[in-house]
Amino acid sequence: MAILGSADARSMASGVSKAMNCTMTGLAVSISGMYPVYYFASRIRRQTESLGRRIPFLRHALAMRLRRHSEDEEEDSETGIDLRADAGFSS
Fold first, then answer.
1. How many domains does the chain have?
2. Among 73, 75, 74, which Cα is nearest to 84's?
3. CB 73 within 8 Å of CB 66
4. According to the model, what pLDDT value does residue 91 have?
5. 91: which residues sit within 8 A by CB, 6+ positions away?
6. Of 59, 64, 89, the residue nearest 76 (C-alpha)
7. CA distance 75 to 49
8. Dihedral, CA atoms, 40, 46, 51, 52, nearest 10 degrees?
9. 21-80 tens-digit pLDDT
10. I need a surface site. Which of 5, 18, 61, 65 has the fewest CB within 10 A?
11. Which residue has the higher pLDDT, 57 or 85?
């Protein structure tokens, strides 16, 4: 329009219409893309918090299992019975 020197509203309207279509399409894509981003971000946050709450419990359970396992080995060494040999394991 600057080259032609005219300010015809009809010629401007078609350009504005094309720009509005592109803008609306971009907004539709970006707004619809916000839902999966929010969904996965909140799911990751919930899973992380859940894991954080379970870690002390898992650590305690593992310590108890290791303690029980070491006590079993001590009892086996006191009786002189090697359960690993009976089970087919060699040390």
1. 1
2. 73
3. no
4. 46
5. 82, 84
6. 89
7. 40
8. 120
9. 999 999 999 999 999 999 999 999 899 888 878 777 777 888 888 888 777 766 656 655
10. 5
11. 57
Across 57-90, b (16+ Cβ under 10 Å) vs e yields eeeeeeeeeeeeeeeeeeeeeeeeeeeeeeeeee
12 domain residue, yes or no: no
10 domain residue, yes or no: no
Host domain of residue 50: 18-79
In the chain, which ranges are continuous DSSP H helix? 9-79, 83-86
pTM: 0.42
Q: Is residue 45 part of a domain?
A: yes
Cα gap 2→8, rounded to integer Å: 11
